[in-house]
């Protein structure tokens, strides 16, 4: 029985894993949609949805927390503009669409995008 198995490790140490997820979140916010593996898409969905919820009411403290999580003020500005569209929506800002397997290693791929 695997207790405490909520987060995926992706075969990486903690710092490298955090950098990977932060990079995926940044790219998703800047581009609006990215194609990645299903496991990575599922892992960043909750992370980005919490960021959008925090960005909906753009207080100075909220901005500072988002900058510390994302590491870039430019991305935070784009996130707050995106979050303004979801003012009355109570969550579920992202959609994951399953795609076919990747050609090289047959990893299941997915498209993650803002609704």
From TrEMBL:
Report whether Thylakoid shows up as a keyword of the record.
Answer: no
SUPFAM superfamilies (alphabetical):
Prokaryotic ribosomal protein L17 (SSF64263)
Record keywords: Ribonucleoprotein, Ribosomal protein
InterPro entries assigned:
Ribosomal_bL17, Ribosomal_bL17_CS, Ribosomal_bL17_sf
GO cellular component terms, A-Z? cytosolic large ribosomal subunit
Cite the GO molecular-function annotations of the record: structural constituent of ribosome
What top-level branch of life does the organism fall under? Bacteria
Q: Name one GO biological process term.
A: translation
What family does this belong to? Belongs to the bacterial ribosomal protein bL17 family.
Identification of the protein by name: 50S ribosomal protein L17
Q: What is the source species?
A: Candidatus Adlerbacteria bacterium GW2011_GWA1_54_10
